[in-house]
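Reviewer comment 2.1 asked that we show a complete input and output for one of the modelled complexes. We chose the phosphoribosyl ATP case, as it is the one discussed in the main text.
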Amino acid sequence: MITLALSKGRIFEETLPLLKAAGIEVLEDPEKSRKLILTTNQPDVRVLVVRATDVPTYVQYGGADLGITGRDTLLEHGSEGLYQPLDLQIARCRISVAVRSDFDYPSAVKKGSRLTVATKYVAISRDFFAAKGVHVDLIKLYGSMELAPLVGMADAIVDLVSTGNTLKANHLVEVEHIMDISSRLVVNQAALKLKQAPIRKIIDAFASAIGK
Ligand code: PRT
Ligand code: MG
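Response of the prediction step:
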């Protein structure tokens, strides 16, 4: 049995064409079904539906042989023991610093003031501002980071941006582009040894589907 861990939403949607290229079709829709283990047209391939941030953990502990997860999640939560053979170039976005449009970020940074930054990406933010020599107080949030500057809780946020519509709708502007993000295929090292042929077949099919 080969087990693939995926999160619902954009990663699931953008993975379907890659699975199809590997001859795998998921037989249930995770948005409609309450099942957490989805069957496929291949009797020996199944898909686990997990929280995006839990994908690396399932693969690390062998609950799944493979998984697909954002580079943001791997950097923030660690990628210890995971083999990362492919950048799938899906679920692309960037991680950025954003502030209220009336906040003077360049002079706050120049003056060496302490910035209060709200984010779910505490590790990425700490590294980024440390490298710039900017002092920050980090506030950990789990979602809707955009609210924090609007209610005066933070000067800035560090969050994912794709179209920029969410920032715009909340009168926030991007002031730093920290890095580009896309999703990676991650593989359990032991599974790769024990189930080499079927796992290689999936990796190779994904690679040719993305033109690598
Ligand atoms: O929802 P849950 O708390 O379970 O987990 P999650 O939010 O981490 O999962 P999910 O499915 O929302 O995101 C999974 C992965 O998709 C992320 O880890 C990223 O690698 C990738 N991804 C790509 C994105 C986006 N684009 C994205 N735009 N994840 C989130 N967003 C959010 C962003 O946080 C912001 O709130 O979309 C909003 C901005 O979008 P725009 O288009 O308005 O700029
Ligand atoms: Mg989400």
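The mean pLDDT is 97. We note this here for comparison with the apo prediction described in Section 3.2.
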